[in-house]
């Protein structure tokens, strides 16, 4: 092949290589995005809370937020912006504060770039089934917790100690009844009664 024919061939080869590289890069980028999306995760445990809740752990491959929803599905709070990676014990302020115990949802959301949560723009991470990456927890209010604790303490305080009845009886709980029975039916009482009977008989004879 002479130099005149070699130049177009080299140019065509360069174009083909570039196209293959571009296609490979796009495919890799798509695969990376899918992998990052599917690796998002969140863990939300049962707890006591009124004005805030704590998410045990959340993994945000591309950074983002944790949004919290009440049992009616209403948005009641969102975390500050979280960098890409895994975060533990993420606290989210709740407004309005919970007035009753309920099941609460914590959801992992992406960041649209502003690093300030926007419910309409910062969409939720999704799993392989196209479902939002979220977890639920039962959040009890402090009032509920205190009421339960008070009821438990009251029941414990009023419960009689084990074996009280037996101990009372053995320690003299029925001492009056026992002593009375002894005094009216014991040997000493029988001798006195007999003596009184004899004296009475003697008096009758003398009359």
Element layout with pairings:
Elements: H1 3-38, E1 41-43, E2 47-48, E3 52-60, E4 65-69, E5 75-78, E6 85-93, E7 102-109, E8 134-140, H2 142-158, H3 164-170, H4 175-185, H5 187-206
Parallel strand pairs: 2-8
Antiparallel strand pairs: 1-3, 3-6, 4-5, 4-7, 7-8
Structure commentary:
There is one protein chain. 44% of the residues lie in helices and 23% in strands. The protein has 207 residues and is α+β, with helices and mostly antiparallel strands. It has a domain at 38-147: Immunoglobulin-like (Sandwich). A five-stranded mixed sheet has the order 2-8-7-4-5. A three-stranded antiparallel sheet has the order 1-3-6. A hairpin with a 5-residue loop joins strand 4 (65-69) and strand 5 (75-78). The radius of gyration is 43 Å and the shape is globular. Pfam families: DUF7282, PGF-CTERM.
Q: Kindly provide the name of the CATH class of the domain at 38-147.
A: Mainly Beta
Rg over CA atoms: 43 Å
The CATH topology annotation of the domain at 38-147 reads as: Immunoglobulin-like
Taking pLDDT < 50 over at least 5 consecutive residues as the criterion, the unreliable ranges are 6-37, 164-196, 201-207
Average pLDDT level: 71
Helix content: 40-55%
Report the CATH architecture of the domain at 38-147: Sandwich
- Count the DSSP helices: 5
Write the H/E string, N to C. HEEEEEEEEHHHH
Shape: globular
Largest sheet: 5 strands, mixed
SS strand fraction: 15-25%
Instruction: Report how far apart the termini are.
Output: 172 Å
Which strand order spans the largest sheet, edge to edge or round the barrel? 2-8-7-4-5
- Structural category is alpha+beta
Q: Please report the total strand number as a whole number.
A: 8
Keywords: Membrane, Signal, Transmembrane, Transmembrane helix
Protein name: PGF-CTERM protein
Transmembrane segments: 186-205
InterPro entries: PGF_CTERM, Slg1/2_DUF7282
